[in-house]
Amino acid sequence: MTDILKIVKWSQDNPNYTYIATWAIFFIMIFVAGFFAGLFDIYFDGLEFLIAAMVILFFVLPMTACVLQNKNRSLLWLVISLSWWGVIIILLLKNKSEDNIEVETAVYAETD
User: Fold this and answer.
1) Over the chain, what HEC string results?
2) What is the pTM of this model?
3) With bands split at pLDDT 50, 70 and 90, how would you rate the model's confidence at 94?
4) I need a labelling partner for 69 at 20 to 30 A (CA). Which of 53, 62, 97, 101 fits?
5) C-beta of residue 26 within 8 angstroms of C-beta of residue 51
6) CB 39: neighbour CB atoms within 10 A?
7) Binning pLDDT at 50, 70 and 90, where does residue 99 land?
């Protein structure tokens, strides 16, 4: 149980890495599905698109929502996250969470 809590804490502390890992897992899942489809010479007739859409709907969007909540941002950013430039914009968003503000003020206090 403590390992899961460590992973959750890490993902809250590093929302950008969590977001990159989410998209990396998505592309790996799509690659593996395509590899096995090609390996066994299976033709799905549009099923690949349906599987990719389901994975985005049930995996990528909830993880993006968690990242946006960790960054203390509006969930309206989810709409932008569905395009390639939206992914870059979300990565560039500044973290506005209270924990981050406390860390930044502590760093500035130490440097003065």
Assistant:
1) CHHHHHHHHHHHHCHHHHHHHHHHHHHHHHHHHHHHHHHCCCCCCCHHHHHHHHHHHHHHHHHHHHHHHHCCCCCCHHHHCCCHHHHHHHHHCCCCCHHHHHHHHHHHHHHC
2) 0.69
3) confident
4) 53
5) no
6) 8
7) low
